[in-house]
Amino acid sequence: MTAPRIDTDTLRALPKAVLHDHLDGGLRPETVVELADAVGHPLPTTDPGELAAWYYEAANSGDLVRYIATFEHTLAVMQTREGLLRTAEEYVLDLAADGVVYAEVRYAPELMLRGGLTLAEVVETVQEGLAAGMAKAAAEGTPVRVGTLLCGMRMFDRTRATADLAVAFRDAGVVGFDIAGAEDGFPPADHLDAFEHLRRENVPFTIHAGEAHGLPSIHQALQVCGAQRIGHGVRITDDIPDLAAGKLGRLAGWVRDRRIALEMCPTSNLQTGAATSIAEHPITALKDLGFRVTLNTDNRLVSGTTMTREMSLLVEEAGWTAADLRTVTVNALKSAFIPYDERRALIEDVVLPGYAALPRTSPRT
């Protein structure tokens, strides 16, 4: 018997966890318009609806470099204390409204220095905005725990300085580290000094790998740099010649057997050309093979998406059930960069009861 579909309102109410979401890719269109006007930054359009459509169209180029270029306008309005406070607070409130109970937000402080803020001031300001958002969300009855990942840009030379920031702020809301930016041509091992420093200081990190480049990128991230998670990781399927048969190569076997989380972002992966369709996205086959896959949004404005939308797409186009959605949510929390007792409490006290309360049947949207 075919499993019943889950309607959108039910999906929105489900407790969610997101590990891979960029602060500068998740602004509200109206916020970009208002802040751009305040700082005198020209936009493709000053109509919020048209701006959202512009982002979505530009992101659907199938080119990771062009996808990243759309961040010019969001970053332009995140160079001041006022801009950072507002965008960070709204970021949290938007997640809470979407049913997210745990999130890790990532951004690169080095990209937010044009207004005169120092690296430390950027981090302090974002943390202040996130804290304000969490307080408001809790007061509204939709609490969400948000941890921060600081990103070094793999094309530049400030990665070690950003790693130092992650160490300095690990008791002030920063839970880990990442490197981001154009993957092809900028291997993770170029930043080995930063990763070795983080390991010495017991700071966990993930690495964008296996999106625009293949198995060598994933191998370096794991076996040379020591990443605990992989951002995207879509190309791990290059080490599984026959997905249906499930015969794994040595790297794929390592990823699965060591429970290394793959931070997969279906809509974003389609837009950057890393996947061809939701129905054929590797997240489903990898889930069925026992990989610790997680579901993420990557950039909510740029990709025109939410966690509810990502879930809905997988339900409607890949046949996912509530059990599948629960699995990837629990996977995310098991691999979150927060203490074990906090992860366990979120799973046992929030996620599992939330799914247990689902009706046995749900109408199709």
TrEMBL record:
Question: What is catalysed by this protein?
Answer: 2'-deoxyadenosine + H2O + H(+) = 2'-deoxyinosine + NH4(+); adenosine + H2O + H(+) = inosine + NH4(+)
The top EC class, named as a word, is hydrolase
Q: Where is this site: Important for catalytic activity?
A: 232
- The residues that the entry says bind substrate are 22, 24, 181
| InterPro entries xrefs | A_deaminase (IPR028893), A_deaminase_dom (IPR001365), Ado/ade_deaminase (IPR006330), Metal_Hydrolase (IPR032466)
Active site feature: 211
Question: Which ranges carry the Adenosine deaminase domain?
Answer: 15-350
Record-annotated residues binding Zn(2+)?
20, 22, 208, 298
Q: Which residues belong to the signal peptide in this entry?
A: none
Q: Which cofactor does it need?
A: Zn(2+)
Keywords on this record?
Answer: Hydrolase, Metal-binding, Nucleotide metabolism, Zinc
Q: What is its EC number?
A: 3.5.4.4
A GO-annotated cellular component: cytosol
Q: Please give the Gene Ontology molecular function terms for this protein.
A: adenosine deaminase activity; zinc ion binding
Question: What is the UniProt remark on how the cofactor binds and its stoichiometry?
Answer: Binds 1 zinc ion per subunit.
Database matches in CDD domains:
ADA
What family name appears in the similarity comment? Belongs to the metallo-dependent hydrolases superfamily. Adenosine and AMP deaminases family. Adenosine deaminase subfamily.
Biological role stated in the UniProt entry: Catalyzes the hydrolytic deamination of adenosine and 2-deoxyadenosine.
User: What is the name attached to this protein's record?
Assistant: Adenosine deaminase
